[in-house]
Amino acid sequence: MQQKVPHNQYDLTFKRLFQFKEVFINFLRSNINREWVNRIDAESLEFVDRSFIKDEFVEKEADVIYRARLEDTDIYFYVLIEPQSTADKSMPRRLFEYMSLVWKRHMEEKADELLPPIVPIVLYNGRSSWSIPTQIFKGFDIFKDDMFNYILVDVNRLDDERLKSRLDLLSIILYLEKSRRNAEEFIEKLREVSEYVCKLPQSQLKVFCSWLLRIVKPRVRDEMKSRIDELLEKIEAEGVEDVGEFIFNVQQLIQEYYKEAEEKGKEKGYEEGIQEGIQKGIQRKEEEIVRRLIQKGFDDNFIAEATGVEIERIKKIREEYTKYS
């Protein structure tokens, strides 16, 4: 779609002016009272094509996007030229929409990188004073330290004693989650919390038992999976009658699985040990042949071609042979 010229010549003029890097950097230094502005690498300023902004915005918006480098970080400046006579209450929402489009493009081009900072700027020349908040989000003064950060709750770092002291439904599950890869520890913890599980309301009890069965299901024999599915359906429909018996049966299933896994692991380890022994024997034989050829005066390239042994390995064998002969 062909872009339409903005109806107001004022904003078009500013768009043309801002295409000169020296004009734009002077604009930033004169109007943005931030310490980091003077640290921007002026040579890194780059006028960004805005064709990725939605077509429906093209007719009514006039904007300029610049990318610059600040130490080891890319930073975007989004300048929205606002020629209307009165302040537009939708401005914060509009700015966020455009910022989202810039971030979307960044994610498409550099999927593995964190999102770059965007500094939104509104250039306004209306007759009335600007009365719209410059904050894009409500309650910014309260949540400013949490905006555009995420709060990490790492289950593995949660304190067991604190979880046990609460023992609500979530705390019980998180307490068990920490040990789900260790059968003995998991079963022991399950015994510890079983008394509290029994006291949960039936609605929460159904959630807990369903979670527990889904933990167990991938670890049981295939013929047991359909039985677990039946139990899940029954729990969802009818709830759990005897919680103690249910937990005991789950413990038995976990123990059975890990016992089988341990036996298979021993068998696999024995087989891998045999294969490793065979491989080492082959390597010793190859090294013996290489040493004999070295003794007879053949060069490394000939030995590599004759034996199939890698040239670097031959050089290492020759080095050891020369050192100790």
Helix content: 55-70%
N- to C-terminal distance: 80 Å
Largest sheet: 4 strands, mixed
Calculate Rg over CA atoms.
Answer: 34 Å
Instruction: Note the run of SSEs as H and E.
Output: HHEHEEHEHHHHHHHHH
Describe the structure.
With 325 residues, this protein is α+β, with helices and mostly antiparallel strands. The protein has a domain at 9-143. Helices cover 57% and strands 10% of the residues. The protein is built from 13 helices and four strands. A four-stranded mixed beta sheet has the order 1-2-3-4. β3 (73-82), α4 (91-109) and β4 (118-124) form a beta-alpha-beta unit. The longest helix is centred in the C-terminal third of the chain and has 53 residues, at 243-295. InterPro entries: Rpn/YhgA-like_nuclease, RpnA, Transposase_31. One of its GO terms (biological process) is DNA recombination.
